[in-house]
Amino acid sequence: MAGILKENPGFEYLQEYWQNNLALQIVIKKLLAKFPQWGIAIVDGVLIDWEG
Predict the structure, then answer these.
(1) CA-CA distance, 26 to 15, in Å (whole number)?
(2) Looking at per-residue confidence, does 49 or 52 come out higher?
(3) How many domains does the chain divide into?
(4) What is this structure's pTM?
(5) Sequence-ordered alpha helix ranges (H) in 1-52
(6) Domain span holding position 45
(7) How many angstroms separate the CA atoms of 22 and 37, rounded?
C-alpha cells in the first residue's frame, strides 16, 4: 500500500516487518529505493532512520 499511496508508513512499522519476514525485506528494499525522501536507509542489513 505504501508504494501505491507514496506515503511513508513510518520507521518503526518498517523495522518491525524488516526483522520478522525475509520476503518483506525485499519489498521494503524496493520501497526505500523508490522513495529516498523518506529518510530511511539500509546499512549492513539494518534499517537506519537517518532523518530521525
Answers:
(1) 13
(2) 49
(3) 1
(4) 0.77
(5) 2-5, 11-20, 22-34
(6) 2-49
(7) 24
